[in-house]
Design brief:
8 helices; Rossmann fold; alpha/beta; globular; 4-stranded parallel β-sheet
């Protein structure tokens, strides 16, 4: 399948492009999946083009009955994480954990360092997931974890994970801008614009 290359997206109108097997259908009947899909559909139906991603996150957590939320954030987005925590604490118990938690030197694992000499704390997404598991969070929110660290965090999180901020240091944490920019589309990636 190459849905990104399809121009009409006729599936939206009922055209069958791939078989939806009974095995796939059964997965949607699982209790947590069904609950999540209902909450997601309700938010889409109620707040489409009316709510920001942050507002949708709050509505979703409320719809799911979540009481304890976790924030796994990059140290470079500490201010944003602090603001987010204050907002969420109005309705939820919130635990937050910085990427440098446990202060483990990159040298301990032979990781590349930005500066060759001295201590440099590695990002520690497994510890972040562990800290939030100890806090018994019901939903974890990524705020700007590095590429790869976000994946590692998601793989080790005991709770479902959503991303509020995707890190892009060059484009002000707006990675989709690279898809709109003539420079990135044309020169950087060699695509015809």
């Amino acid at each position: 399948m190459n849905c990104a290359e399809c121009e009409d997206k006729a599936c939206r109108q009922g055209k069958v492009c791939h078989t939806f097997t009974d095995e796939l259908r059964a997965k949607y009947q699982r209790k947590e999946v069904k609950r999540t899909m209902h909450a997601a559909a309700e938010i889409e139906a109620s707040y489409y083009m009316k709510a920001t991603r942050l507002e949708e996150l709050i509505h979703f957590a409320e719809a799911m009955g979540f009481k304890r939320l976790g924030i796994a954030f990059c140290i470079g987005l500490s201010e944003e994480a602090s603001i987010l925590e204050k907002i969420l604490k109005q309705n939820f118990e919130v635990s937050s954990v910085c990427c440098k938690v446990c202060a483990v030197d990159k040298g301990d694992f032979g990781l590349a360092k930005m500066r060759k000499d001295g201590f440099q704390a590695m990002c520690n997404p497994i510890a972040q997931a562990t800290v939030l598991e100890e806090a018994d969070t019901q939903l974890n929110i990524i705020v700007g974890l590095c590429m790869g660290h976000d994946i590692t965090f998601s793989l080790h999180s005991h709770a479902p994970v959503t991303t509020l901020v995707v890190k892009d240091r060059v484009l002000g944490h707006n990675p989709v801008a690279a898809l709109y920019s003539r420079y990135y589309k044309g020169t950087k990636f060699g695509l015809k614009t």
